[in-house]
Specification:
Shape: globular
CATH architecture of the largest domain: Sandwich
Number of helices: 5
Largest sheet: 5 strands, mixed
Number of strands: 13
Helix content: 10-25%
Number of domains: 2
Order of helices and strands: HEHEHEHHEEEEEEEEEE
Oligomer: single chain
CATH topology of the largest domain: Immunoglobulin-like
Radius of gyration: 23 Å
Length: 293
């Protein structure tokens, strides 16, 4: 096969003379990765990866703008590029919206709704839907993902302080208010998504390492501080007991985790659920995802 034009080399030549390079990659929404088609791995197509690396080699001030229907394993980009901007597929103003974010005119306020793994080897078999046994999804995954559920950066920084619960214990039909102070410690206004997770410390069964219970979006000016309040229902801490054919809320302590993503936890508190019946008491203590014996 005769190579007529080397697109990566042409892109690199243009990149070398640019102040900043934006490489737009991703997938077409109607091609690959649909309900009737599966990808063989999580990597970018080889041609796209080569283009990105060629542009970066010519100009280190290269940014990746990735638009896709699904996660990619973009570990090289994360390790080398100064910025990565991801978006799902948008409408006719998609390009204008990306430009506004890249130029700093708009805040990139989105947060990931999936775990982005570093490699397909970290995933269970394609037909294995038992996320508990496979330690899959953000609930049970023990490794370090490329990007966790809830991840998202902006153009400013936020500090968390003074986590408080309205009560230290609750009955299975009760609820508590979780409050935390969030401060914009950066130099420009920004949006933060405060996320609330829990982890049951004792159980008769294998429990998630963390589980999202709520979130709140807050907009803060530079130096502004705001108290964010979230409600946590004890009934939501239950799980389906197949042996009883009913949902069970056990007598147990729960870690209350507040932070910026599933793995970026800033503050931790404790809530104890006092079950109505001794039959709901756990058989043994676990580390949060240990298997009952």
């Amino acid at each position: 096969m005769e190579l007529i034009t080397d697109g990566a080399a042409e892109a690199a030549a243009l990149a070398a003379d640019a102040d900043v390079v934006v490489v737009a990659l991703g997938n077409h929404p109607m091609i690959n990765g649909r309900e009737t088609e599966d990808r063989v791995d999580l990597a970018l197509p080889a041609g796209q990866e080569a283009l990105l690396r060629a542009a970066y080699a010519a100009n280190p001030r290269t940014v990746l703008a990735l638009t896709s229907s699904y996660p990619y394993a973009i570990g090289w980009a994360e390790a080398h590029l100064p910025a990565v901007l991801w978006s799902a597929h948008g409408g006719q103003e998609h390009g204008a919206a990306l430009a506004a974010v890249l130029l700093g005119d708009a805040e990139p306020g989105g947060r990931l709704t999936q775990t982005w793994y570093a490699d397909a080897a970290e995933l269970p078999d394609l037909l294995d839907y038992d996320i508990i046994d496979a330690d899959a999804t953000y609930l049970y995954y023990r490794g370090a993902p490329l990007y966790p559920l809830g991840h998202g950066l902006g153009y400013t920084r936020f500090d968390y302080a003074d986590l408080r619960l309205s009560a230290a214990s609750v009955t299975p039909d009760g609820e508590v208010e979780v409050r935390v102070e969030v401060t914009n410690s950066g130099a420009r206004a920004g949006e933060e998504v405060v996320q609330l997770y829990t982890r049951q410390r004792r159980s008769r069964v294998k429990q998630p390492l963390r589980q999202l219970r709520g979130f709140a979006r807050v907009t803060l000016a530079p130096g502004e501080r705001k108290v964010v309040r979230l409600r946590l229902r004890a009934a939501d801490l239950g799980w389906w007991d197949e042996s009883r054919g009913a949902r069970v809320v056990e007598d147990a302590a729960h870690s209350v985790l507040v932070g910026r993503s599933a793995t970026d936890i800033r503050l931790v508190g404790t809530l104890t659920v006092r079950a109505a019946s001794a039959a709901d008491a756990p058989a043994r203590e676990t580390t949060g995802a240990g298997r009952s014996r």
